[in-house]
Design goal:
Length: about 325
Amino acid sequence: MIIVLKPDATQEDIDHIVERLKELGLTPHISKGKERTIIGAIGDESVLQNQPLDILPGVEKVMPILKPYKLVSREFQKENTVIEIDGVRIGGREIQVIAGPCSVETREGLLEVARRVRRAGVKLLRGGAFKPRTSPYSFQGLGEEGLKYLAEAKAETGLLIVTELMDPRDTELVYRYTDIIQIGARNMQNFRLLTEVGKLDKPVLLKRGLSATIKEWLMSAEYIASQGNRRIILCERGIRTFETATRNTLDLSAIPVLKEETHLPVIVDPSHAAGIWNYVPPLSRAAIACGADGLLIEVHHEPEKALCDGSQSLKPDRFEELMRELRKVAEAVGRSL
Ligand code: PEP
Ligand code: MN
């Protein structure tokens, strides 16, 4: 249920409504928009049948949220969510590119990539310390050692860190080192993990599941939001189709669909979508042209020696060139980079 308040509703009115909702066993979520405040009442709405809320002071109207996802829906919040971390804004006019290796492998290698992507104009560094590998015999990541290298790269370059959390048991550890918590495609419906990150005060980058529909993906985002953390970035990373020419099929249509359905920022990962480095630049340009708020791109200093995803990683030189190309596309669609 959405409770739309009158423009002149007072804080006292809001407190009173919140208290009433809690008495009814509903969870209130407040969204303060430019013009008015909206309160989402989440829970079993049947309790409202004999309890009209529209008579409470400050209430203009009460409407049901028709979508199965509530807090993340456009119905609940009209304005785009802009996530700000130390002055870096995701979801605003400026396009943000998250770049770095698939996995943190060596201290020197990570520092080299960090310096190069920083020079290319990037503000966010990615790198996995815990890797969700298809084979148990593949490199699984350096764990805390990798997180320490990320911290060192941050201290030197000022880049914000994005790294994946795979297991609720590592939450405290990963939280300590990262600025944005990545939830990987394979964990998109790990509801325990989603509930866990929903309680944290750091933004979550939620990747689309390999075979997840947009609705299922938004329901996963709702899991996080329902716990209080509404700073969620959605990341389209390609889905499973019958096509085998690329690792996955990049679903560009997800971008305009999500822009209509949700207020959350949407970014695109062309690296995992394509699986092949030379398809990454055209897909990146298309994603920005299509309305994405950012990109997540794998960059490696020596892709041929990478322990993970070398074939889809750009070398720093090519990445730098891509950033120049993207600036033009961003400008053409009224964005900056
Ligand atoms: C990654 O970002 O390195 C990764 C493992 O991605 P995904 O979860 O999308 O496969
Ligand atoms: Mn990868």
